[in-house]
Specification:
mainly alpha; 0% strand; 483 residues; globular
């Protein structure tokens, strides 16, 4: 962990803890269970978790809805357009994974400083995060323009699809800087335990994106018909719109408003943010790259193309359960970080387990729904009988792993709130690279179980990941991490 000088730290700490106004303001930001030194009941813990998690869950569900409608519009433009959005989307996911470096670090640090009532450090984190995210976004944008053509040329697409992919990606690069800075601003809200503001921003951004999608793709009213370029333009404009909304909302915030400004980057602070956030970014990259390997194994099964078509269908349907889990993970990040800042590790642990319990209940119910309605879910996306069968197998087999996915997702968020982003990254590497991929190859290819073997490898690896995450969290090493 990188630190600022002890003199500088002491100067800020003395200033903030002796400021009655800052102390009272920080107290108001904390959930009710942290505003008292008395023994906290499980009922109070459950209420805090529920009230913070629900807006985060709704925000993530909106992400899913937005992606679904976007694909629906683009699908009317033909195969090349769909391929372009799918392949370019991998590049966009890669950029988003990089943006997690600042976002994860900012959330963990702001939560810890708010809990400890050291608001000077929280404001400093915001200013440094804004500068760092803008610089990283600008670098990624330039590299994206330079590498797009050679990178997408390696994908083996038809020339028309490759050109469409490059066009779509190059337009979306114009929204990379606001995407990075917006991620940092949203991360600060989450660190303060405010999940409602990101929800409001996401609602408006979704509406803007979908309306512009429809208008610019098909040329509605005064808007020109831009086709695929219109879809990319709508996405880029919505990114700028979200950035402006986050910026203005934080400017009006009573605690952080005065700190919403870019500041000369200080390497000591940049290292603190990156040391926390970089493993989380690596974790996302490990997931993305392991899925590429998993997709390669699916392509070699007897079902071949049907397996590749069934995977996104299954994952899209399953994302209905992913999103609540991700929302509870975000809540656990904020609540654990604030609790440790307030030197209440006991409350942090209870917040983490209560968040996990609530997510497990929701995701277990969704697993039952997936199992019962697997075929209707698959039929919603395709009428190809083989694809329907393979996708239904995916949903029914992975239904068993949903409660364990909740364990992995929410407790990973708790680790991140404590500033321990390395443990979840190692778990991801072990469960996906050392366990899932070899097991999938063994079951699907070597033993000849094909997609059934691949789906079981996925489910078993999720179960193993959840159990391992719970075991390491219970050991409590996260309690001693410094940010």
């Amino acid at each position: 962990m990188a630190e600022t000088s002890e003199d500088y730290q002491q100067e800020i700490t003395d200033k903030d803890t002796s400021d009655p106004h800052d102390s009272a303001t920080a107290q108001a930001l904390l959930p009710p269970a942290l505003r008292t030194q008395a023994v906290v009941s499980w009922k109070a813990i459950a209420h805090d978790v529920w009230s913070i998690s629900i807006p985060a869950v709704a925000t993530n569900l909106l992400h899913t809805t937005n992606s679904f409608l976007d694909r629906m519009f683009v699908g009317r433009l033909g195969r090349d357009a769909l391929a372009a959005v799918g392949v370019a989307g991998q590049g966009i996911f890669l950029l988003m994974a990089i943006s997690f470096i600042v976002g994860t670090g900012a959330t963990a640090m702001v939560a810890r400083f708010v809990g400890g009532q050291v608001l000077g450090d929280a404001r400093k984190t915001l200013r440094q995060s804004l500068t760092l995210s803008a610089l990283m976004g600008a670098v990624c944008m330039v590299l994206g323009y330079l590498l797009a053509k050679p990178a997408f040329g390696l994908m083996g697409m038809e020339p028309s699809a490759e050109r469409a992919t490059i066009t779509f990606f190059n337009i979306t690069l114009l929204g990379v800087v606001p995407l990075f800075v917006g991620q940092a601003l949203g991360a600060v809200f989450r660190g303060m335990g405010d999940m409602r503001t990101p929800l409001k921003v996401m609602v408006v951004v979704n509406v803007v994106h979908i309306l512009l999608d429809f208008a610019l793709i098909f040329g509605i009213g005064p808007f020109p018909r831009m086709g695929l370029a219109g879809a990319a333009t709508a996405l880029t404009i919505s990114q700028w719109f979200g950035f402006v909304m986050f910026w203005n909302a934080l400017r009006r915030h009573p605690v952080m408003g005065e700190a919403v400004q870019f500041q000369r980057l200080e390497m000591a602070w940049a290292r603190r943010i990156v040391n926390i956030g970089a493993p989380a970014s690596l974790q996302a990259l490990l997931r993305i790259t392991s899925m590429l390997g998993y997709t390669r194994i699916l392509s070699a099964t007897a079902e071949g193309t049907a397996a590749l078509a069934a995977l996104p269908i299954g994952m899209t349907a399953e994302s209905i359960a992913f999103m609540p889990g991700l929302g509870y993970s975000m809540a656990a990040t904020a609540l654990v970080g604030q609790s440790l800042g307030a030197k209440r590790a006991d409350v942090a642990s209870r917040y983490a387990w209560m968040s996990t319990a609530q997510a497990c209940i929701i995701m277990t119910v969704m697993g039952i729904v997936f199992y019962i309605f697997a075929y209707p879910f698959a039929h919603w996306f395709t009428r190809d009988p083989l694809v329907v069968k393979v996708a239904a197998d995916y949903l029914r087999i992975n239904a068993y792993s949903e409660p364990f996915l909740a364990l992995a997702m929410v407790l990973s968020g708790a680790f991140q709130g404590a500033g321990d982003t390395r443990t979840p990254t190692w778990i991801t590497f072990v469960s996906m690279w050392l366990f899932r991929l070899p097991l999938a190859y063994l079951l699907a290819i070597t033993l000849g179980y094909n997609t059934l073997g691949a789906w079981w490898a996925m489910a078993v690896s999720v179960i193993a990941s959840g159990l391992l995450t719970a075991l390491l969290f219970q050991r409590g090493g996260w309690r001693r991490v410094k940010v």
